[in-house]
Design goal:
CATH class of the domain at 28-98 and 107-320: Alpha Beta
Number of strands: 56
Strand order of the largest sheet: 2-3-5-4-6-7-8-11-10-9
Distance between the termini: 124 Å
Radius of gyration: 44 Å
Oligomer: single chain
Helix content: 10-25%
Low-confidence stretches: 1-24, 44-49, 96-106, 290-296, 325-331, 490-497, 523-531, 536-541, 692-696, 1000-1012
Largest sheet: 10 strands, mixed
CATH architecture of the domain at 28-98 and 107-320: 3-Layer(aba) Sandwich
């Protein structure tokens, strides 16, 4: 079922509309490389923001792909991780693999590689080539391991379940697999490295998980569990690291697993080994939803007692993938032509040649490995051809692959398709030279010269990416036969890689050797001038226009809405495509024009889509429908009747009309109201048909239109019904319906459905006006269990309707019920939970409470479902809270200087004033420098420069080249100065004449006339007394 809006685009742009069920997650079968491959695509309606991982799952000898589809438990993990799962079916046989392939079965690793490559090349799957994984049970696990060894450049991770190691003698193991292995881990590692040949450097980014029953010392019933230990040890040797250690318990449904891990020097987890001691030989699916009394599918080698290995494996690979974001998706690497040619004109001497090219450089060498032997070749710059100049014997089964290395050191290994040429050596014609040039619109003008031994004009055939063209004209000249041709692409899917081949066919219809050429651009060697542009989804949704597109090569896309360029989100790339997304919402109700174009690396518009009109109804959502068609025949009257019945819903209005069209005639449906927005409808038309067609069956194209009360119409077109009167389809039946509510205001629906001649594909559930799809699990025989749960309903009555749909599109009877959601009072405070802002009365409002119904918990920092009070590692950083300075910060665990800033963010961890970048001891506040780099800081080191002289005796303690003071040179004697002449004595001055003596005074009497000596004595005494006081 799919909805087609009234939009028609040319080949340059493809539109597919989303309906509620059209892109729902489901398994589908496709044919690839002689396998019927069951592929699971996650639900696109949940959105897509990144490229998807790809998981290849290989069944065991006694399994089929359908067993793993039904019981392998891949769907939930695929939806959770947005992962594609592909399961090739080998018809219940073992896979053939080296070194002892089972007779008559093609080597599995080559065919499975083709499966991987074809899925990668499908742009609609959005596969990331950095996330290619492979897993398997038993023989499938051995092949998965061999794939990882042979193609480490492609396989990012493996999951090996109860399997003997790659390189073991599989023919012998058919009888001795449960015996203790005699092969050593070293022998397995050697075999793995031999498989890889020259690709061993890619083991640096590969990881592996290994699981089995038993404990490593016993058999799990079919395979000895010691093989798991041997494989883990072998990969440790291949990866150049220590083997697994430690013990971690992994919860199982009933049986727990015991995990040991190996971590490399950079801290990356590379190897996981798990034993599930209580489990036998089986794919450990975990709880797949079946009855608990029927938990081991013995005839299918699937066990649900143990761990959920699909979920464990996917999480382990996604978490530890070392290839994510490590390259650009492949465009920086060289490419190798899809075909490699083998000249078999001489039965005993085969010649091998092929082509290679590089978009942004030049190829330095191409190594061709044939049956394990390597041959170095050089690339011809003109023809882009490499030749192995050896005489070889090659058959259809001889392993051949090539490895190209460019001037940047980028390497690509590839297994090209072997093409055997038998007649070209006898051809009278050959190609001498070719020149090809592309213009701005993508047309290639090609010219060249061919020769012919009999001078008869040859026919010139040009091959550009598997599109064949015959040259327009061939003219004989003096230099040979000149040919010219102009080739324009019919659509954008041509001329992407800008190279091709030319052959000449002589009069006897014998082909010459192909001549490889590269297309040049009028702008120069612009190998990126042609691109592929495709819009994969374009739909209106509540005032939104959403477009997704991809381009090939290094193109730049542009999308215009109302002639205004729109912003594009780059989703990612793989080696084939680049993916983009455009989302414009809050658009007013109007008709919008949209077109897209792509620019080459010179800024030239290479492809532009036609402008299309899209009607956006801002306030009107499209109605949806779940329905089926039932076909009945009346053989006597050659009459065929078509009956459609189902449920239609309009989320923002009412259903106005429903009609069914069959054999060109429209028939209105009758319907009854289930609720305000939902109806149950049916329509029936009968026609007389051709008797012959009616007798042998015939296919009819049916459509259904659903219109709401605002004029929005949902069209379900391209529904093909094949009518076989001999085997009419029996409709499924709802046999049981149970509805319950719980304290979380949840409505829980479960029951049983059956289908006598097919499978129950899905079960539709309607709760009032909302439509949902239930989870459906096969129970046993023709019975299926379905279940659905949704929470948060307000108290009140709810109408329930359930219908089952089978794989032919037929629907069951509609079962109905009414449930009542009651308000509850978790904390018994007299206020119902819907009105209570704190349901558990723990003091934290419900809107801020991660556990609103658990008064013991309110926060879950690491979102692991365990509240912080019970969780011993709140931030899930691997450090227990008791040892974690920042128990609520997953990016920090330690604060050396206790400054409140974790070491990861702190630029000076030890707080010594020297930045960590300049600190030789960033966690030691007493040391900052280590001059001699002996691990002892200068403050502690007695010989800082390590020159053998203690710092106390070292004149230069920080210079290892010097330690003693250099002696000072003796000063030169200064010249003795001349003695200065003695100064002449100056003449003594003449003595002055003595003055005449004054007359001597008369002595005074004692009655006052004298007394001078007594005064002097008195003055002396006073001065002495004064001096004495000052001293004290």
């Amino acid at each position: 079922m799919k909805t087609i809006f009234n939009l028609l685009l040319n080949a340059s742009i493809i539109i597919s509309a989303l309906t509620q069920h059209a892109f729902a997650a489901s398994w589908k079968d496709i044919s690839i490389a002689n396998y019927n491959v069951s592929i699971y695509v996650p639900d696109l309606s949940k959105g897509r923001s990144t490229l998807r991982p790809l998981m290849i799952n290989l069944h065991g000898c006694e399994q089929t792909s359908q067993d793993l589809v039904d019981y392998g438990n891949w769907g939930k993990s695929a939806d959770k991780h947005n992962m594609i799962v592909a399961i090739p079916d080998n018809h219940g046989d073992c896979y053939g693999y080296d070194p002892s392939p089972i007779p008559g079965i093609e080597l599995a690793h080559e065919s499975i590689l083709n499966v991987i490559n074809e899925l990668i090349e499908d742009p609609a799957l959005y596969i990331d080539t950095n996330q290619i994984y492979i897993s398997g049970l038993g023989a499938g696990g051995t092949v998965a391991m061999e794939m990882g060894c042979r193609y480490p450049y492609l396989i990012a991770g493996m999951g090996i379940a109860s399997a003997a190691s790659a390189g073991s003698n599989q023919a012998l193991l058919q009888y001795l697999s449960s015996f203790t292995p005699t092969m050593s881990a070293d022998e397995v590692a050697t075999a793995c490295l031999d498989f890889a040949v020259d690709k061993t450097e890619h083991f640096d980014t590969q990881i592996v998980s290994i699981v089995s029953g038993g404990d490593g010392t016993n058999s799990d019933g079919k395979i000895h569990s010691k093989w798991s230990t041997i494989s883990a040890d072998a990969f440790a040797s291949v990866y150049g690291m220590e083997s697994v250690s430690g013990v971690t318990r992994i919860d199982g449904n009933s049986y727990d697993g015991i995990e040991a891990l190996a971590v490399d020097n950079s801290g990356s987890t590379r190897i996981s080994r798990i034993f599930v001691p209580d489990m036998g030989y089986a794919w450990s699916a975990g709880d797949i939803g079946s009855d608990s009394s029927f938990t081991y599918y013995e005839d299918k080698d699937i066990d649900e007692h143990g761990i959920n290995y699909p979920e464990y494996l996917t999480s382990y690979l996604q978490t530890n993938n070392l290839k994510i974001n490590q390259n650009d998706g492949g465009w920086s690497k060289p490419f190798i032509g899809e075909k490699i040619y083998i000249n078999t004109t001489n039965p005993e001497c085969h010649r091998v040649f092929g082509s290679a090219y590089d978009f942004n450089g030049e190829i330095l060498s191409v190594t061709v490995t044939i049956n394990g032997s390597q041959y170095e070749t050089k690339l011809d710059e003109t023809s882009l051809r490499f030749d192995v100049n050896e005489c070889l014997a090659i058959s259809e089964t001889t392993p051949v692959y090539a490895t190209a290395t460019d001037n940047d050191g980028a390497i690509r290994s590839f297994i090209p398709q072997k093409t055997f040429l038998t007649n070209h050596a006898n051809s009278d014609a050959s190609i001498i030279s070719v020149h090809a040039e592309k213009d701005e619109v993508g047309c290639v003008t090609l010219s060249g010269i061919a020769s012919s031994n009999n001078w008869s004009p040859p026919q010139i055939v040009i091959n550009i990416e598997d599109n064949l063209y015959v040259a327009d004209e061939v003219i004989q000249t003096e230099t040979g036969f000149e040919f010219n041709s102009k080739i324009c692409p019919v659509n954008m899917f041509e001329f992407i890689l800008n190279h091709g081949t030319v052959i000449a066919i002589d009069q006897s219809q014998i082909e010459s050797l192909p001549y490889t050429f590269e297309v040049e651009s009028q702008h120069g060697n612009n190998t990126n001038a042609t691109v592929e542009l495709k819009i994969t989804e374009l739909y209106e949704k509540g005032g939104c226009i959403i477009a997704e597109l991809y381009t090939s090569v290094e193109a730049t896309p542009e999308v215009y809405l109302q002639e205004k360029q729109q912003e594009l989100e780059f989703l990612g790339s793989n080696q084939f495509y680049k993916f983009y997304h455009m989302n414009r919402c809050e658009l007013e109700e109007d008709t919008y024009t949209i077109f897209a174009k792509a620019l080459d690396n010179y800024g030239n518009t290479v492809i532009q889509t036609e402008t299309k009109n899209i009607q956006v109804n801002e306030s009107n959502a499209l109605p949806t429908a779940h329905f089926s068609f039932k076909v009945s025949t009346l053989t006597p009257h050659n009459t065929i009747c078509f009956e459609a019945k189902g449920i239609a819903i309009d989320p923002d209005g009412m259903i106005n009309a429903i009609s069914m069209t069959a054999i060109g005639q429209s028939q209105p449906a009758t319907f009854e109201q289930l609720s305000e927005h939902a109806v149950q409808f049916s329509a029936k038309s009968c026609f007389e048909v051709d008797a012959v067609a009616h007798s042998y069956g015939y296919s009819y194209d049916i459509s259904l239109l659903v219109e709401d009360n605002k004029g929005a119409v949902a069209e379900y077109n391209d529904i093909i019904l094949h009518v076989d009167p001999a085997f009419p389809n029996l409709a499924p039946v709802i046999t049981e319906l149970t509805t319950k509510t719980d304290e979380n205001n949840c409505i829980n629906i479960e029951g049983m459905a059956s289908d006598d001649d097919g499978v129950v594909a899905f079960v539709s559930v309607i709760i009032n006006d909302e439509s949902f799809e239930a989870d459906v699990q096969h129970y046993q025989s023709i019975s299926y269990k379905y279940s659905f749960s949704k929470c948060g309903y307000i108290p009140g009555e709810y109408n329930i309707a359930v219908a089952a749909f089978d794989n032919y599109g037929d629907s069951s009877n509609i079962q109905t019920d009414i449930v009542t959601v009651k308000d509850i009072d978790t904390d018994n405070d007299g206020i119902g939970n819907l009105q209570d802002p704190d349901d558990d009365n723990d003091g934290v409002d419900d809107e801020h409470d991660t556990f609103p119904l658990n008064r013991n918990e309110s926060k879950d920092t690491d979102h692991d479902g365990i509240g912080n009070n019970a969780d011993n590692d709140d931030d899930n950083d691997g450090v227990l809270d008791i040892n974690d300075d920042f128990p609520l910060d997953p990016s920090e665990t330690t604060d050396t200087d206790n400054d409140g800033i974790g070491n990861n963010a702190d630029t000076d961890d030890d707080g010594d004033g020297v930045l960590d970048f300049d600190d030789a001891f960033p966690l030691d506040p007493y040391e900052t420098t280590d001059t001699d780099k002996d691990g002892i800081g200068n403050n502690t080191d007695t010989d800082d420069d390590g020159d053998g002289v203690a710092d106390s005796e070292d004149a230069y303690p920080l210079d290892p080249k010097k330690s003693q003071l250099e002696p000072k040179p003796e000063p030169k004697p200064e010249p003795k100065p001349e003695p200065e002449p003695e100064p002449k004595p100056e003449p003594e001055p003449e003595p002055e004449p003595e003055p005449e003596p004054e007359p001597k005074p008369e002595p005074q009497t004692s009655d006052g006339g004298g007394g001078a000596p007594n005064a002097f004595i008195l003055l002396f005494c006073l001065l002495s007394l004064l001096i004495t006081k000052r001293k004290h």
